[in-house]
From TrEMBL:
Superkingdom: Bacteria
UniProt name for this protein: MHS family MFS transporter
Subcellular location: Cell inner membrane
Main location: membrane
InterPro entries xrefs: MFS_dom, MFS_sugar_transport-like, MFS_trans_sf, MHS_symport
N-terminal signal peptide: none
UniProtKB keywords: Cell inner membrane, Cell membrane, Membrane, Transmembrane, Transmembrane helix, Transport
Chain ranges passing through the membrane: 16-35, 55-78, 90-111, 117-142, 154-177, 189-208, 242-267, 279-301, 308-328, 334-354, 375-395, 401-421
Topology class, membrane: Multi-pass membrane protein
Source species of the chain: Massilia terrae
Amino acid sequence: MTAAVAARPVNRPATVLFASLAGTTIEFFDFYTYANAAVLVFPKLFFPAADPTAASMQSLVTFAIAFLARPFGSAIFGHFGDRIGRKATLVAALLTMGISTVVIGLLPTYADIGMAAPLLLALCRFGQGLGLGGEWGGAVLLATENAPPSRRAWYGMFPQLGAPIGFFLSSGVFLLLSATLTDAEFFAWGWRVPFLASALLVLVGLYVRLTLTETPAFQAVLDKKELERVPALAVLRDHRRALVLGTFLAVATFVLFYLMTVFTMVWGTGPLHFSRKQLLLLQLVSVVFFGLTIPLSAVIADRRGARAAMILVSVLIIVFGLFMKPLFGSGHMALMTVFMVLGLSLTGLTYGPLGTLLSELFPAEVRYTGSSLSFNLAGIIGASLAPYVALWLAKNYGVQYVGYYLSSSALLSLVALLLTARPRIGAATLSREHA
């Protein structure tokens, strides 16, 4: 046994970090490509055009479907991730997301096949949700379970970086298409390009992941024959408190991000009368700060703990929500830029430590399932209807109530963080797992 363990190949840190980053970048590129299209394209091409507002609302409902699918993806892929391993499951999750995205780029529109078009669109969006539901937790574990104990937050930051990079690439492609194509060309075929181009990214991600071996923590579970027969049931039976608190401590992260991206795009190109190009450029600039603050959050989390880092940022988000009206609601580009930069910087500060903190709440034998379920249940509560709720609040009560909605979600997450005990995984446990 000792000789066999010594002979096992060890994943190189650079390969692990690149594999976790590449996979989540591809998944989030696909996910945000749909988010951009749900605002800019689908209301015009996949829904009846008689009422533009109704078409936008219906499009946002299909956007929400992925968040409803993500817990199912967590349960399905988490089951196999905690039963057969992280590597094979991550490959399957990436394929599920990639195929669903490419098919969207091939769909006929409402003008071609009527109501079948939005139904097929919704089905593909469900597939995207399944894939991302399995991807995120596995990518975080791929990084953190290969990490030295003192650098878990730094390693766990790399899959989180996939979100801003994927978003930047997605918005950049839409901005480039908007700048180089006429509106007629863009709506005729240009919008399909990012969906179809995803196939090339998926091939790269698959190649990298197939070169990896199993993580040390899960290999230890295999060696000791400590596999759970049904990991999801084990989480619900033995780790309910961690699941509930993990879900609610992540809610503000989701609400903040999707208000900063989807809602601001809808409201900015609608009642505020900015052009599609202006809002895409503003988001492109702001998301750079999202990416820059994620490594900063990892440094803070490794020094002070992921929980302490997220408590501080939750307080800042509560305060930030009170400035929704004077900054974003002003309609002035300079103030809107300040608002977007601040909002996405706070998103990076709360998103960076999130994967590490959620993974620390669960033992290795159910960690894939538990952390994925927490993350994706938070997506249902905090993100699936956030753009829809925000749009309704803004139309009926004013933009300031969208800010109150954000502050309330951050208060909910703060309470969950305060109720969460210090991470159950101590330094000794981490050292044994990494060994």
